[in-house]
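Hi X.,

You mentioned you wanted examples for the new student's onboarding notes, showing what a folding record looks like when two proteins sit in one file. Here is a clean example. The first protein comes first, with its sequence line followed by its structure tokens.
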Amino acid sequence: MAREIIATEHAPQAIGTYSQAVKVGNTVYLSGQIPLEPVSMKLVDQDMRAQISQVFDNLQAVAQAAGGTLNQVVKLNIFLTDLAHFPVVNEVMSKYFATPYPARAAIGVAALPKGAGVEMDAIMHLD
């Protein structure tokens, strides 16, 4: 099956050797997003709610560029430098997703790129 590279200016440009997303058949693999503002490429305010919202905005932009929405995400991985922020993830996530929610994992990590407090990647299936 052919791979299609997904790219959009509405999400941060890759800061390494990766694509924003790769589509294979009806499956789209969205690369990890940190809370970078797409135009300035700078981290948003250090407030965790703002960081989590920016990550979902970035994932949403990539999903849309691939022809989908966040409601087509089947697997979401969440990386947090402080798992105490997990309730905030749940609160903010409920504004971006409708039931049924995707499968997900929340993983505590020591550090993330550019000093971010959160990073997420996803797998999306296009109907």
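Then the second protein repeats the pattern, sequence line and then tokens:
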Amino acid sequence: MIRHIVKTHSPSISKVAEAAGVSLGTVSRIMNGEKSVNPDLRKQVLSVARTLGFVPRIQTPRLAIVVGRRNPRLPVGYTYELVSLLTDCCHQVELRVETLDAAHLEAALDCSVMAAVGVVFDDSMLQLRGVPHLPLFSINRPLAHAGIHSIYTDHYEQGLVATEHLLAFGHRKIAFYGGVKGEWGTMQRFEGYRKAMLAAGVPPHPEWVSFAENGTPRDVLSRFLEAGITALLNFNDDVIAETLHTLSNVLHQRIGWDVSVISLEDIPLYQYFSPPQTVIRQPLEQMAALVVNTVADIVKDNNWDIPPMDECLHAELIPRHSVGAVPHW
């Protein structure tokens, strides 16, 4: 259930001008987004306005969604799904949405922005700390230790459960194809994979492991197949669909027979692949609703100083036909 934003009384523009020590005209130009205003003065006035709780009457309250890497060739996937779900939740509470990237975070200073949520894998959200009355949220990048509300799934568990599923089908030569090396989620999933392999008495060989920066999907998959792998954790977020296409149509592997595959996210598209894909499903709907509900509660009660949440949720493995027994050539 989504809880509605409650609009509270806003101080006048003259109060903002008085507190900031500037003219009404200056405040007006800043609120109207004029570029001629000195950037430092703009930040000063917007900070004062936020501290006073000023919201311009002509503007609708907004949630700023900060996104990181996006693959323009892949209009589906984790980031696309999560932004869509956050947008849907915001519409239910009459919040508009503004999507930003790390190079344009200053837009979150606007007084109509009620909160900012990061759908990013780095620390760029830290740049917004200290902005008055701007609750910050991070999804799938734990930052509670830095004072940012954090909602994430147990990525270590994802790697562990997916690998154990493949091991249960008799696979031992299991490859890990991860995202950008060093990112929190990627390394947590890799550690879960490594732990499961070691527990099964199969230390993962270096040639069974690759990350986003290690070459094109065709190059990576060709190396995996040359190394004799029979199963793959398809965990490079940016090229999941391309990986499936390359395996089937370029390298002529029968998924579920020649090589078993587990992919990330239960994107509807993957149910209609041939064969339907076994996936790790994160509770993205729950995560989006939790963010928007918390924003609504904070704004309703003017409770800007609540301790940062640190909410770890669990993903689910959805078995389909892309995983089968070890092939006997």
